[in-house]
Amino acid sequence: MNRLLETVSNISQFGMDFSPDFIIGIGGGSPIDAAKAASVLIFHKSTDTDLLFDNRGDTHITLFFVPTTAGSGSESTPSSILTVHTRKTKLSIKRRVYCEKAFINFRYTISMPYNITVSTAVDVLTHLVDEYMSAKSNIFVDKLVKIGLLGFSEILPMIQNEEFNECFREKIMILSSIAGIIIANTRTTLTHTMSYPLTYGKKITHGFACGLLAYEYLVFHKNKYKVDDIVSALGFANIVELKNFLKNSCPNIVCSEKEIYEYSNIVFEDKERLSMHPYEVSLIVL
User: Fold this and answer.
1) What is the pLDDT of residues 195-236, one digit of tens each?
2) pTM of whole model > 0.90?
């Protein structure tokens, strides 16, 4: 299932036909996020997706989730990220939507193919990076992120050697949910904001889009202490080793100057998301 606004509207129309008491979202981040958004519309008996982007409360019908990937952490967050064709990117709805229960079982992820396994694992890593570098980070968030980064360091060799056994599946699923819990307190910042138009324009998975941007984001970030902290917690000798891991894990893409300009303008329009970065962000046209 995709996460288009039109899909959410269709789900709402279907749901209003029989007034469900709850929704069960099964799958990765896309169907779970779509279920969150639809739960708001069904509660309000509407198919108007504009309701999702106002601030008139967080009411929705009950949700249960069964995640079948280990990356988005959407089962733990109140966020719902939807694809908006008119903006050529993805946007977060304004409502905060939590599920009643999530059934987190790594056995649901065992059949994931290689590309999705690696992409979602990279997504977990970039979640932890974004959360640590966020303007909303605090001592409690930082402690949880450190636990997540140290846990990720344990599975790094498994990713590099393609050892996707049950031990790996269990650990990455736990890390994904932990990262989701932290997102609920911080939100993601520039790596994810920049990834949305890249995902839309280049049709690559969200995790890979984030991974392609993470190294340059850390180089760009002013808080070098935290950057060094991330590199150390992951067990890398220096940031170049992190760069090489991301380069080897993610596909290579090429963007024209026109595309870079277009994507940058889309990012710069999202002032709310830019505010998650601890320093002012400027758009420089060369």
Assistant:
1) 999 999 999 999 999 999 999 999 999 999 999 999 999 999
2) yes
CA-based max dimension of the chain: 58
R_g (Cα) of the chain, nearest Å:
18
| 266: Cα within 13 Å, side-chain hemisphere | 24
- Angle value at C-alpha 187, between 90 and 151, nearest 5 degrees: 110
Tokens (6 digits) for 229:
């902290």
Among the residues of the chain, which ranges form H helices?
A: 5-16, 29-43, 114-133, 139-160, 166-186, 190-202, 206-220, 224-233, 239-249, 257-269, 271-274
How far is it, in rounded angstroms, from Cα 225 to Cα 230? 9
pLDDT of the residue at 227: 97
For residues 260 and 91, give the distance between their C-alpha atoms in angstroms, rounded to a whole number: 19
Q: What's the chain's length in residues?
A: 286
89, 196 in Cβ contact below 8 A?
A: yes
